[in-house]
Amino acid sequence: MKKFAQKVIAFMLVAAMVITAGVFAPANEVKAANSSVYINPFSDTVVTYKPGDTTTKNWSVISIVGCSKKSEIKNLKSSNKNMKAEKRDGYVVVYFGDKAQKTTITCTVKGVKLKTTLTVKKYSNPAKSFKIGKTNLTSKFKTTNIVKKGGKTYKNQNLSVQLKSGWKINYVSVYNGGKTKQYSNVNSAKFSQKITLKGTDSYVLVQCVNEKTKITENLHFTY
Questions:
Q1: Which of these three, 122, 152, 181, is where a domain ends?
Q2: Which 8-state DSSP code applies to residue 29?
Q3: Confidence band, pLDDT 50/70/90 cuts, at residue 2
Q4: How far apart are CA 221 and CA 223, in angstroms?
Q5: Alpha helices of 40-86 — where are they, by DSSP H?
């Protein structure tokens, strides 16, 4: 069950990074004129490593618009030998460890040369307060963005989240074991909503964006 839960978390976070993770892009990622192939501006370019997180701390995703097969990605290179880049269908996975570092990723897709920089920083906890009903989870996010807690069902309890200065909530996703409820475009440092968590692998995912550093952190609570 633990391995299954880790796979669910990993799949969900890959999807988030490919589609919505991050909301800003550096100037060198602007798509070429008259080209339908370019680095997806919603890909993360500043990421963090999380001590103790065995699920997501070692990799990040760079999505490529106009690319659907890994065979279309040619001459893929990473300027940092400690950050390995691998082809996937429509995107590139970059692996890194517990270290602040940087790399420049280059490749060619359908004759178009692409280039972007990926910066890795140490995890910074964006949560000033994170509560579900009477359960205070704030301290749990101090060193990792994924918190697991079993043995309790939360029925119609208030999810209350407040972020530290400089951070805003992009969206909140709640899965209660049967269906997913998404609260999009929150655009605030605070969020409050009655939720229910029941069933195996139920979770709350809060995507947080730092307005200054452009770092995206996904605070994830599951049981």
A1: 122
A2: G
A3: very low
A4: 7
A5: none
